[in-house]
Amino acid sequence: MTITVTAAALLTEGSHLLADAAASGTDPRFDAAVLLAYVLEVPRARLSSHPELAVDATAIEHYRRLLLRRAGGEPVAYLTGRREFWSLELTVTPAVLVPRPETELLVERALALAPSAAARVADLGTGSGAVALALASERPAWQVIATDVSVEALAVARANAAALGLQRIDFRSGDWYAALPGESLDLIASNPPYVAADDAALLTLQHEPRRALTPGADALASLRTLVRGAPQHLRPGGWLLLEHGLAQAAAVRAELVLAGFRHVRSHRDLAGHERITEGQR
């Protein structure tokens, strides 16, 4: 007698497995649903509307392998190779950080601060290209530069740009301002590494590229580099926008003031944490 295994049964199985795994980190049922929808190549909503959907043995085996990897801490985005950011579907690989929802605040502030149709902006440390692509999709007339020191990350970002038809972006390889010789910009945005090398949080992020997470023992090192180098690359009135850690806003504001920026202020993400700090040259 053949036993039919349904999508509903597999979702329950996956939810229980991930709920018991300390590395799960997010809603276990959501993660299980994303993985099952990926394996079955169906929209996630179909799993709810058709819980009786029968799943064959090959798909079940694939799904269970992914569950075990997720339970071991691998991000769902790496397992599926996809992540949505600013309503854009991006390809992600272990060469880039998984784009986070809170980073969308960086995009929101950039759009609010540089309304000019002819703005020239840069996204430093672009990773998957998430911020640069979001800005280019919202402001077709902007000139967007996206940089990264990682050749592998730039390859992912370029592929995302091509897939989304956003091929005007100028991708450049280089460490921070080394990729912007002679540039004069209206806005610079960055989500740099800001986790100290000895921070226990890195243990939960071990599958993501370490270089994109930590600048070393000094968690503020990259943020300081960005603040101190920005005036040489910003036009008068230009803005610098930085994402940072939950307890770093005051230190970043102090650095901006020391570097001569005005209108320095921090903004809170949806969780209420000071996440983005900005200043005007």
What do these coordinates show?
The termini are far apart. The protein contains eleven helices and nine strands. Strand 3, helix 7 and strand 4 (143-148) form a beta-alpha-beta unit. By secondary structure, it is α/β, with parallel strands linked by helices. Helix 1 (7-19) runs parallel beside helix 4 and helix 6 (104-113) crosses helix 7 (130-138).
CA-to-CA gap between the ends? 74 Å
The CATH class assignment of the largest domain is Alpha Beta
Oligomer description: single chain
Describe the strand arrangement of the main beta sheet, using strand numbers.
5-4-3-6-7-9-8
CATH topology of the largest domain: Rossmann fold
* Helical percentage: 25-40%
- Uncertain regions spanning at least 5 consecutive residues: none
Main sheet record? 7 strands, mixed
Cα Rg: 21 Å
How many domains? The number is 2
Mean pLDDT: 92
Q: How many DSSP helices?
A: 11
> What structural class should be given to the helix and strand makeup?
alpha/beta
In total, how many beta strands? 9
Task: Estimate the strand proportion.
Answer: 15-25%
Considering the protein shown, what is the CATH homologous superfamily of the largest domain? Vaccinia Virus protein VP39
Principal-axes geometry comes out as elongated
Provide a quick synopsis of the model.
This protein has eleven helices and nine strands.
